[in-house]
Amino acid sequence: MKRLLILVSLLVSFTLCNAEPAFIAGKDYTIIENLPSLGESIKPGTVIVKEFFSYGCPWCYRLEKDLAKWHKALPKIVDFRRIPVIFESGWDVYAKAYYAADILGIDKSLSHDIFNEVQVKKKRLDTNEAMIAFFIKHGISEKIAKSAFLSSPTIDEKVQAGISQMQMLQINSVPNFVINNHYKVDIAMSDGDIDKLFRVIGFLIAKELISSMQKV
User: Fold this and answer.
1) pLDDT tens, residue by residue, 32-86
2) How far apart are CA 212 and CA 216, in angstroms?
3) Per 3-state DSSP, what percentage of the chain is helix, strand, and coil (rounded to 5)?
4) How far is the C-alpha of 61 from the C-alpha of 161, rounded, in Å?
């Protein structure tokens, strides 16, 4: 318990140094109220940060490099998760691609390549056939690639679970971040300012950790 309190104190200091004390609910972030159960248990002294995103989202691509640096600097008691959303036709294929790459342990490298293909080269990867060919081109066997996109109950379940979370948390824009299922903030609330977005997230992480410490 003592070690946990030390870690929490360090992270609170870290996040507060990168945040501002004057962020306002309803303006800079949203408080999630009357949330249905998501079947998640959050350990004391731990914060879950979820990014809702899509390879089809230009702003998600613009955020990618900064997100990678931010994620790398986070202490281990922050559990960062990514959840692909499905807002448009073909985005279900992007969601399958993320989960397939995650299961294969190549999500970081392949995510960069998918973003580059879709957002920079303007290639169409929004069909199962196109994404299967893309995976094969990147060293995945044809059998595994076809299974992932055409007949994988595990991936289909993950896609459906992501859709359920998106609906229950009322995610209607991306990139959108949810902190401990209590708060959410998107790029629009930060006026398109990426640095401010991460400062708000840091502020909310600290807020959750302080609340957790008070309950110990």
Assistant:
1) 987 767 777 777 778 999 999 999 999 999 999 999 999 999 888 899 999 999 9
2) 7
3) 55, 10, 35
4) 23
pTM: 0.88
C-alpha span between 186 and 49 (Å, rounded)? 13
* Number of neighbours of residue 33 by Cβ within 10 angstroms: 6
Give the pLDDT means over successive 10-residue stretches in the chain (216 positions): 49 52 89 79 84 97 95 90 96 97 91 96 96 97 97 97 94 95 94 94 90 65
Residue 107: per-residue pLDDT? 84
Q: Give the strand order in the sheet containing 176-179.
A: 30-31, 183-186, 176-179, 47-53, 78-84
- Cα–Cα nearest to 154, from 206, 78, 96, 71: 96
In the block, tokens 């609910």 appear at 25
Rounded to a whole number, what is the distance in angstroms from the first to the last CA of the chain?
Answer: 9
Enumerate domains of the chain plus CATH numbers.
Answer: 30-190 (3.40.30.10)
If phi over 0 gives left and psi between -120 and 50 gives alpha, with beta otherwise, what is residue 77?
A: alpha
